[in-house]
Design goal:
InterPro entries: PIN-like_dom_sf. By secondary structure, the protein is mainly alpha-helical. 36% of the residues lie in helices and 7% in strands. A two-stranded parallel sheet has the order 1-2.
């Protein structure tokens, strides 16, 4: 995941985000969306990212 993120210029390619990459990789592997308000995950390759709050 780090290599792919680095190729496309995504912040998850940065060495400082090891833990965040594990979280994203787990969601991708399990085929589930990642729900978070951490904008770092937005646009990560192969990751379905949900950040909206449903009030209803």
């Amino acid at each position: 995941m780090r290599a792919r993120c680095s190729q496309v210029g995504h912040a998850l390619g940065n060495k400082l985000h090891d833990g965040d990459r594990w979280i994203a990789a787990a969601a991708i592997r399990l085929g589930i969306p990642l729900v978070s308000h951490n904008g770092l995950f937005d646009g990560a390759p192969g990751l379905e990212f949900i950040t909206a709050i449903d009030d209803g």
